[in-house]
Design a protein that fits this description.
5 helices; mainly alpha; single chain
Amino acid sequence: MKISELTSEMVKDYIGISDDDSDDIVGTLLMPAAKAYITGYTGLTEEQLDEHDDLAVAFCVLANDMFTQRDYTTSIHRQVSPTVKTILSLYAVNHLR
């Protein structure tokens, strides 16, 4: 599955949100933020993101993390999920290797 094929309903299911009131948060806040994070981290364009099906997993994990980790004081040493970091690193064109 490609990131562009993900719907807010699919992302809500992944996150475990069952109410309809969260449609706006998922579709207008979390999904664009997750995509922006991935494009910024990897340096890939939105079109290039769809060349890699596994980035949809990283996208959903990021959206979930953005939803569940809303408190600033949850942890001082917040780090990117190892799964997300590994997937994004595979396609990062803007980092020296």
